[in-house]
Design brief:
Elements lengths: L9 H16 L35 H4 L14 H10 L4 E5 L2 E2 L5 E3 L2 E5 L4 H15 L7 E5 L10 E6 L9 H13 L1 H19 L6
Antiparallel strand pairs: 1-4, 2-3, 4-6, 5-6
């Protein structure tokens, strides 16, 4: 069958463009700390808001990014990807796992990050980013975005970024964790670039979508 495009919907398209502009309006890491509620004094001035030490390598990051950091700090090998989602600010992460193997060395938990998104366009752009990484052969395994569990008392939609390895035997946890690190390297910059490209395209091709 031939798959047709949906009928034009100016209100929906304008909302998508507004979502992309909102992504571009978010404070940079130099302007605001990405770790929620972090007030640890910085090294340069002892300020609780200075961003001079903010990075995915900060020793406090695993605790500061968790809602219960003392008992459940972010696991080391998924910290960079969780940090990058915090830098986006529009897709707040809510759960993560660095992946685990059982006593026999068999993979039984995959690396993944769950995140909220009020816009459907953000998961789409992240999915496009993953596809580009795969085509460039920068990932060992295919990764994708899926809708996942959300508590009944929450109306947000929860998504998961995770590897797709159902048909792959003996997947390597080390390789999967390296993939997660690779994905974290340019996630923010790539989504910002995509947002600018989409805005420019629709501004040029359709006056009703003009920014």
């Amino acid at each position: 069958m031939k798959i047709s495009k949906p009928s034009p919907d100016s209100a929906y398209n304008n909302q998508c463009l507004e979502d992309m502009k909102d992504l571009l309006r978010q404070p940079t890491v130099k302007e605001m700390r990405p770790c929620p509620n972090c007030s640890i004094p910085c090294k340069c001035s002892k300020s609780p808001t200075c961003t001079c030490s903010c990075s995915k390598g900060c020793a406090f990051t695993p605790v500061q990014m968790s809602s219960d950091g003392e008992r459940y700090p972010i696991e080391e090998n998924i910290v960079p990807l969780v940090y990058e989602f915090n830098c986006l600010r529009v897709c707040p992460p809510c759960w993560s796992c660095e992946g685990h193997v059982d006593n026999s060395g068999t993979l039984n938990k995959i690396p993944r990050v769950w995140f909220y998104s009020r816009s459907l366009f953000y998961p789409r752009m992240i999915s496009e980013y993953l596809t580009n990484l795969q085509f460039a052969k920068k990932l060992k395994y295919p990764w994708h975005i899926v809708v996942t569990y959300t508590p009944d008392d929450c109306l947000e939609t929860t998504f998961s970024i995770e590897p797709r390895i159902e048909s792959i035997e003996n997947a390597s946890l080390i390789d999967l964790q390296h993939d997660a690190l690779t994905i974290s390297d340019n996630l923010l910059e790539s989504l910002q670039y995509s947002a600018r490209e989409y805005i420019a395209q629709y501004s040029e091709n359709a006056q009703q979508f003009k920014v």
